[in-house]
Automatic annotation (TrEMBL), chain A:
Its main location: cytoplasm. It comes from Pichia angusta (Yeast). One of its GO terms (biological process) is rRNA catabolic process. GO terms for molecular function: mRNA 3'-UTR AU-rich region binding. InterPro entries: ExoRNase_PH_dom1, ExoRNase_PH_dom2, ExoRNase_PH_dom2_sf, Exosome_comp_Rrp42_subfam, PNPase/RNase_PH_dom_sf, Ribosomal_Su5_D2-typ_SF, Rrp45. One of its GO terms (cellular component) is cytoplasmic exosome (RNase complex). Keywords: Cytoplasm, Exosome, Nucleus, RNA-binding, rRNA processing. Belongs to the RNase PH family. It is found in: Cytoplasm; Nucleus, Nucleolus. CDD domains: RNase_PH_RRP45. This is Exosome complex component RRP45.
TrEMBL record, chain B:
GO terms for cellular component: cytoplasmic exosome (RNase complex); nuclear exosome (RNase complex); nucleolus. The keyword Cytoplasm applies. GO terms for biological process: exonucleolytic trimming to generate mature 3'-end of 5.8S rRNA from tricistronic rRNA transcript (SSU-rRNA, 5.8S rRNA, LSU-rRNA); nuclear mRNA surveillance; nuclear polyadenylation-dependent rRNA catabolic process; rRNA catabolic process; TRAMP-dependent tRNA surveillance pathway; U1 snRNA 3'-end processing; U4 snRNA 3'-end processing; U5 snRNA 3'-end processing. InterPro entries: ExoRNase_PH_dom1, Exosome_comp_Rrp42_subfam, PNPase/RNase_PH_dom_sf, Ribosomal_Su5_D2-typ_SF. It comes from Pichia angusta (Yeast). The keyword Lipid metabolism does not apply. It comes from the Eukaryota. Residues 72-223 form the Exoribonuclease phosphorolytic domain. One of its GO terms (molecular function) is mRNA 3'-UTR AU-rich region binding. The lineage of its organism: Eukaryota, Fungi, Dikarya, Ascomycota, Saccharomycotina. This is Ribosomal RNA-processing protein 43. Belongs to the RNase PH family.
TrEMBL record, chain C:
Coiled coil: none annotated. This is Exoribonuclease phosphorolytic domain-containing protein. It comes from Pichia angusta. Belongs to the RNase PH family. Signal peptide: none annotated. Residues 9-125 form the Exoribonuclease phosphorolytic domain. Its main location: nucleus.
Amino acid sequence: MVRDYDISNNEKQFVLAALEQNIRLDGRKLLQMRDVHISVSRDEYGYAEVSLGKTKVACRVTAEITKPYEDRPFDGIFQISTDISPICSPFFESGLTTGSKQSNDEILISRLIEKAVRRSGALDLESLCIIAGSKCWAVRADLQFLNYDGNFIDISSIAVMVALLHFRKPDMEIDGNNVILFDEDQRNPVPLSILHIPLCFTFQFYNPNDDEENIKGNLNNELILLDANLLEERLSLGSMTLTINKNKELCQMVKCGGLNIDASMIMNCCQHASNLVDDLTRKINDVIKKDSELRKNPVEKELQVVNQRET
Amino acid sequence: MSETASLKPNKFPPDVLARIAPDVLLQKYLQIGLRPSLRKFDEFRPVAISRAGVGRYEASEQNGDINGVGSVLGSSIVKSGKTTAICLISGAIVEDDHELINDYRTKLEKDIIDSETHTDSKNASVYTEVEISRGGSGPPNEEEIAISHRLYETIYHSGLIDRDALKIQLGYKGSEQLEQDFLPHTSYSFVLYATIQVFSRAGPVYDLCYGALVSALRQTRLPAVYIAEKRTEVGVRRVRIEEYDLVCEAEKNEPLRLNENKLAWSSTFGLVELDRDVPHDEDKMEIDTEGKILLAELEGEAEEDINTRITVSSNGSTLSGLSVYGAAGVTKDDLRKAFDLASRHSQYVLNSGGMEM
Amino acid sequence: MSIIVDNDPLDQVDGSASFEFGATKVMSSVTGPIESARPRNELPTKAYLDINIRPSSGVPSTRETLLEHKLGQLLPAVINLDQYPRQTIQIAVQVLKNGEPKDYTARQLVAIINSVFVALINSGISLKSSFMATCCSINTKGEIKTSPTSSDLANSVSHFVVVYSIKDQQVDNLLFCDGLGTFKQKQLFDVLDHAASEIHLSFQHIRQVISSHVSHNYIWKA
């Protein structure tokens, strides 16, 4: 890759010196998230645009009927695809550039999202089964990164979950071996069965002292930042992603190398994330609720087939 | 004494000039009423269409028996000028279900379907892969992919092939139809693939590929299919999976039904503006055009530099598929002229017996 | 046709725009002129166009390559490529909402072309003329519909994408026309007339959006 995002030494020192005094360039506290803005599509199902400060992603969920995997005849299929296109920043090169730094970042992000959402069982795969061994729903979430200002991971987990909650698949009936699908006008489409809403929180670590203090010392005054922007992310010495849900269950914890951090500080991070997850979950549910109320017309409300359920 | 520097005019042979300044060379030719390819402005290259003779149901040349083996269902060779395109059609069998259910409209409750809003997509197409040989191997480049997909799109939207024409009527080995009770729950269809190889290309090759594809489809023969065996397998965790072995007959076959009135031939034109500023010899023959010249079937480096192009498929009266682009500002008159030429050309090619083979 | 244009929503690129009409939405970005990433892309006399289109769902396929190819046919006619020799202009397009059946690309192509136009303006790349796209379809009865909806397209016999250049707020030259399906010459000419008047109307709106964006950017001058 020819181009890269260069940060001058002055800029670097300035940002780090400010951080040591608990000041971030955008005026936030160290452990404060940027404002999350979520909008969902009014005229179709399964499309959400989420922005976190200037970082912006869109997520689209689609479903189609296919044959299940042979070794899992009772399960549906769920796939998440993440591809970073040059639209969000010219530093991401288009096309296949295996081995370059960008594609490593990309793999890392998609693995993290995959583990956070798919492996944590957020989507009930068994409910996607139609006829065991021959037909099932294949749900696909496509993440589209639009603007890059750091912290793709947290925003992606929000976007995928909102899009999944927003999605409705067409209602259907099984007649022998035949599947009859119903149009939106004939029967209300049904929501996916979402078991919980795992959300990611990424912390960045900085070391105000030298390496020796970090490894040998007992000071534990490493700086911890939540929801870093592009500049902060570039200067970070290590990061950790926690995936947590409303029930305060830790679904995933990833800290690959980087700065050595005291275990008790990590506990503090967990505590902080579990405080934040409530607000964020409420925000997501509000958006979904508002959207479904806008879609409802009063007559249909009476004729609703599916019972309302809280997710 | 100082030497006077003098600029000597450089002289290049035409083929060199065509590479370094194609636009200049083209203007030079056009000023004297000629094309670099030495054809007339509206002259097409002669087209020759023949069978490749390698199809499963084609008679082999030695003894006249049909080949009976192989996966090629139709083939053609189209030659135009020096360029040759070979097209081979092959097929595969798919279960209708998965594709059709996802096309939600096909499985809606019958009594609620309202024909105004729900029309089945009746058209089918052929998945095409174009390879322009350029002395080397590698993944298809952008031009090849674009031609391939454009062929797919044009055939699909022109309605040349009905989806029903690819449906498989299962039978016993032999002749009879299967009784209703024995029919499997799933229905099957053919999917057609086309591989087109282009050799020694000169000029845009879309027309040639389109011609080769249509000619090959015209004599494609689909095999009769019967069920050899029904197997019910108990798969993982006691899930019953019904599978059928489908066998394609070696001899019995029937031609692929095409909507003959949708058969067309494609022509590409270049539109070039005559540059009055290029100095030219006064004594040479002057042509009287009002600035813009339409050139049929571009060929060679100088002509390919023209980047205002009109590509149109026509069957003589109806057009099917059109692509116009370029900065020269195509007017309706230019289009009319191009359409006239294209329909005359396609009538000639489609009716001249070349297509009958 | 209600058009929603979002001017310069992205800030990591030189110019960007999203274009939404009906159920179709596309976001485009333009970066350039920048250094060519590969020596192969350094053209001695003009800029190289690096066009990248991503579908709303799934991975890019031959369909997107053809769309890129079509955009690559149109853009040299409107961008002053010879002003940026040896450099690259990177155009990235993300389709956000299809708004049409899966075998059609007409509405998407219209949204792509129009969003790229606004993005090019925002990026400050030198253009030869303004341009705008629209689409039309002809149904079985031979009626022409401008900006057809998804079901209009599904029931159509043929459909067209038409791009005209615009000079002094008037529709000028035909730059691009892409027609699929079967149609007669007269029908095509009617389509061109319909498209020209449609473009004349819609361009007023785009112009307004651009001029308000520019005056907002130059607010410090007032």
